[in-house]
Amino acid sequence: MGLGNVSIGSTYPEVSRDEMLSKLNKLKQPFLKNFNPDLNVRIDRIKRIQTLVEENIDAFHDALRSDFGTRHEQLSLMADTMPVINNAKDALKNIKRWVKPDKRKPNFPLGLLGAKAYVQFQPYGVVGVISPWNFPLTLSIAPLIEIFAAGNNAMMKLSEFVPATSELTEELINKFFSDEEVVIVNGGPQTSQDFAGLPFDHLLFTGSTNVAKKVASEAASNLVPLTLELGGKSPVIVGPNAKMKKSVDKIMMGKLLNGGQICISPDYVMVPEGQTDEFVDHAKSHVSENYPTIKNNPDYTSIIHLNHYERLRELVKDAESKGATIVEINPANEDLSQQCKFALHLRAFPSLYYQHWF
User: Fold this and answer.
1) How far apart, in Å, are the Cα atoms of 184 and each of 72, 126, 129?
2) Torsions phi, psi of 238, nearest 5?
3) Is 268 found in the same domain as 148?
4) Which CATH number belongs to the domain containing residue 327 in this structure?
5) Domain boundary among 230, 247, 262
6) What is the DSSP pairing of strand 268-272 with strand 235-237?
7) Residue 4 confidence (pLDDT) above 50
8) What 8-state DSSP symbol labels residue 79?
């Protein structure tokens, strides 16, 4: 991704709250009349999602590569398109069991009178989804499968940081589904804020804790129940008896996948005192063997946005100013700024028993 393309998120056109509310009300209308999609309707919707992805898998991979600048087709296959297809297959396999009433024992003495009790599952209504950019299909279309399996309609706000993927998703959803089943919203930051404040029956959000607080605040105005999947800390502890090379290979694979842009990417490692140099040596060897060059390597994913790239640079500078030891692993010593790629940096903070890296 050249730096000239990375400001797209700030110029994405906004969608007005009134327009979104009008679409939401249309999605809600069936449930105001006690609409509860039967099994055949739910199966048909899930099959359409599966077909949508299978028939357009190459187009999705091209869009993802365009948005990231560098993102290998195999990564997109493994992390975005195949998970959606597999989720659809799993839902189709299990949905008959999921929708069956759950039997319960009636309270005494009703059971003596022949009474039977069960829980009959019913859809919420319209579920809102605010999806992130790092795995834009897995975290948007895959939840849609579960929403449809439960009998709901959906309204989804896709990420403005991946415009090619978001626009393709909107185009295909509109082709395969009516606006009485699911609506896609593409817009900028103000659209996201207004979207979070709509009166959904449930709202899903995947992203950072700071943004989640704002989403929760907006949703609270309508008492909308939330499901939040948030990024957090992902520590790795290397025990004193661990096989260092094997441990480092696994840690590096997880850290470098998608350019480290994963909510569960290892963000710090606790290494036994005295084994720091061994850890660093194995890390250097792993990167050199798997990414001898980074600049034009299609296996090494670019940072999604210039703001994120600059934030990483500032974190390194901040650590240096506070006395941390920095080890940059850039095997070919390349200038990566024009590709918006970020070499792996190890930052050491000594402690009494362990030494922390990353």
Assistant:
1) 26, 13, 10
2) -95, 115
3) no
4) 3.40.309.10
5) 230
6) parallel
7) no
8) I
- Helices marked H in 103-208: 141-149, 163-176, 189-196
In three-state secondary structure terms, 349 is strand
Give the mean pLDDT of 130-140: 95
Of 55, 127, 63, 64, the residue nearest 85 (C-alpha): 55
Instruction: Tell me what pLDDT residue 157 has.
Output: 97
Whether residues 104 and 133 fall in one domain: yes
Contact 135, 79 (CB under 8 A): yes
Give the β-pairing of 226-230 and 202-207: parallel
Domains identified in the chain, total number = 2
Three-class SS string for 30-60?
A: HHHCCCCCCHHHHHHHHHHHHHHHHHCHHHH
- Whether this model's pTM surpasses 0.85: yes
Check which CATH number belongs to the domain holding 68 and give it.
3.40.605.10
Boundary (domain end) residue, out of 180, 213, 230? 230
Query: Cα(153)–Cα(149) distance, rounded to whole angstroms?
Result: 10
Mind telling me the catalytic residues?
A: 229, 263
List the one residue out of 286, 231, 287, 236 whose CA is nearest residue 262. Answer: 231
Range of the structural domain that residue 287 is part of: 235-357
Query: How many Å from the N-terminal Cα to the C-terminal Cα in the chain?
Result: 25
Residues contacting 70, CB < 8 A, separation 6+: 1, 297, 298, 300, 301, 302, 339, 341
As a whole number of angstroms, the distance between CA 183 and CA 158 comes to 11
